[in-house]
Each structure stands twice: as C-alpha cells, then as structure tokens.
Design brief:
five-stranded mixed sheet, disordered N terminus, about 50% helix, 5 strands, 2 domains, alpha/beta, about 250 residues, single chain, about 10% strand, Arc Repressor Mutant, subunit A
Length: about 250
Amino acid sequence: MPTPAHAAEPEILSFAPPYRRFEHADPTTVVGRPPRGRALVWHLRDGNRQRGEFEMLRTRNAATPLIVLLPPASEIRETLPLIHGIPALRPRAVLPGPSLGTPRYVKHVLSSPPPSVAEAAANYLARRGLLEDARVQREVKRIFELATEVSCISELARRMYTSRRTLGRHFSSTGLPVPSHWLQFARLLHVCIQLQSERVPVSSAAFRAGYPDGFTLSNQMKRLIGVRPSEVRGLLGWEWVIEAWLEREGLGEG
C-alpha cells in the first residue's frame, strides 16, 4: 500500500515568537521545558500511526500550550482511534483544518483570553501539583476572581468571608506564597492577558487594574515576572507568565 503523501510531513510543530511560521519540533522540544511564548501545534491525521505522538503530548511540560489541528472532514475517519482522547491533552484549541491551521489564526488563538482566567489559572496550578489542598485551590481561584476588584489583602479577606490571619494560615500550611503575593500576581496576570488580547495602551491597562500609572505597572511586572509590558505583547500565552512568577517565588520546575 502506498504511503500517504502527508505521512512524511512534520506532525508536531513548534510555534514561537515572532509567530510567523511553524517549525519542526523534535522530541526534546516536546517534553522539555519550553521557552517563554512557545506553543506546539499537532496535526492529527492517523489515529493508529500517531499513538506515540499522543502519549508524548499527553506528558508534555504543563507550560506548553497545544493547538490540535484536525484533517478535512473527508479524512476524519482516520483519526477515530485518538480523537475521543483529545481532552486528555488539555489543548488550548482544536481547529478544523486546514483552513484555520495557519500561523495567523493560531497566533489569534494564543492571544485570546480563556473564558475564565480564574478557572484556567487554578486548574493549571493544580496540574502543576501546587494546589493539592482542595480548600486552598478554591481560595486561589477566588483570589484570581477578585483580583480586578480589590487592591488590598484586608478587602480580599472580607470578600472571601474570612480573616487575613486565617487565610494566611491556610497558605503557609501548604508551603505556598502568602495571600498578598497571590493577589499582586493575579492582578498582573489579568493585565498580561489584556495586553495580548486587546492591544490596549499600557496606561489604559494599568488604570483598569488599579495601578496609578503605566510606569508603576511596568515596574511591578518587571519585579514579579522579569519582563516589561512590551515584552508581554510579543510572548503570547499565559502559562509562561505563571511559570515566570512561580520561579521568582522559588516554586519553578527544574
């Protein structure tokens, strides 16, 4: 039987700044710690032949966003052995190909905010093994939900119907950063996502998030995640933002 023409084409691709084209991704690129802003694009074409790729992607570094591209409808039958397992890959998006499988559209997907920043962040941190306590996981999610509405830890505790001391005790007992650090970062994460998705001026993003001006926001961002707003715009995705903060807090991988 002749080999399909697309069998020799790369099926796991790397997509990195400046996001102009896809590059072949070797296995070390898939399983290793990704550079900031790098995502993977996977062409699912043959469910039997690509089982090894599926397992590799399932165990990839949590910080690597994944876009799955499906074949044309006329070829979808070939994907059936794996297509039902796609949710286990935690993809950022599943796109019908090939019309949407372009660098321009994938770039759009990476810059789009998640439906719920709080839920996405809490789930990501749980997958990283940092929120093993269910109560703390709920509290972290609530902090991300309230980050755009409160600016101090006292108000945060009040909105969470607890005290500063009790909230702090929950976090310290699990070895996590203090709640005030979470609040500062949660507010900053919302800003990073906004800068990527809306392309708003830095001063506008700062004002919306409660910072007095863009200069203060820029300095806070540099202190918490090591980059400036202009760099955030060019490094799409939010996973790397969380990882940058975790590293500063001494919780980074490796």
